[in-house]
Amino acid sequence: MLPTVSKGRSSSSTSRSNPMFFQYLRRIVKWQQMDVEYTFWQMLHLCTSPKVVYQHTKYHKQTKNQWARDDPAFVVICSILLMVATLAYCAAYDHSAAHAVYVVISVLLFHFLITGVVIATSCWFLTNSYLREEAPFNSHVVEQRVEWLYAFDVHCNSFFPIFVLLYVMHYFLSPLLVAHGFIPMLLSNLLFMAAASYYHYLNFLGYDVLPFLERTTFFLYPIGAVIVLSPILILSGFNPSRYFMNLYFSQRL
Fold it and tell me: CA-to-CA distance for 5 and 208, rounded, in angstroms?
């Protein structure tokens, strides 16, 4: 049985979240305490069998009494991989070391970390405010809340397949995708559509596994918007690959 916290003790549960967060930050600089092997196992299964990853999240709740990871290895390794991939783009399309440093920092901060903080905070607020099951009044039924760190974990999990599709695979296909013509534009839009849809699907899985949330299908709605928007972009002649590559490497395209 999962550990429970009654309504009267929910405030003490909240007060423990800050020490957990600071402990998480301290472990970022302690590489020897990170479970790197398990992190790569998660990354592999997020691309092949994501439900297995969230099944292990239930086990983590049972053993650690928290949904969020207490190991920052996933964030650290994902950041390193993202920087390496961005450096590969800079080596192929840039000619300035100073500009390459700017590109790496901006991609790491804005594509992954800052965007992740904004999305995690929005989902954390949404789930706790509107999607939690209401307990009967004056009952002693368990009251649980989505941890902010767990919301950030969900973003990180959802981001990794995007990294594989739009940073790794896109790198090798970029000579084709940035070319002029209908086929490159079509393939580019399909690749971005697949990445965005998979991101929101994993986002849905992350919150659907929490037993105290309801109406989590809300997180699937953006996939419909992506499917509707993609034909419009294709018919308008928009090539997302050329757009983002020109944004950083306009002098080489």
Answer: 20
DSSP structure class, residue 110: I
Residue 67, amino acid: W
Are the beta carbons of 184 and 178 closer than 8 angstroms? yes
DSSP letters along 25-41, please?
A: HHHTT-GGGS-HHHHHH
Q: Each residue of 183-218: pLDDT tens digit?
A: 999 999 999 999 999 999 999 999 999 999 999 999
Q: DSSP assignment, residue 6?
A: -
- DSSP classification of residue 252: G
Beta bridge partners of 224: none
In the chain, what's the furthest Cα-to-Cα distance? Answer: 66
DSSP 129: I
Q: Which residues have C-beta within 8 Å of that of residue 103, sequence separation ≥ 6?
A: 86, 89, 90, 94, 248
Give 55-113 pLDDT, tens digit per residue. Answer: 998 887 888 888 988 889 999 999 999 999 999 999 999 888 999 999 999 999 999 99
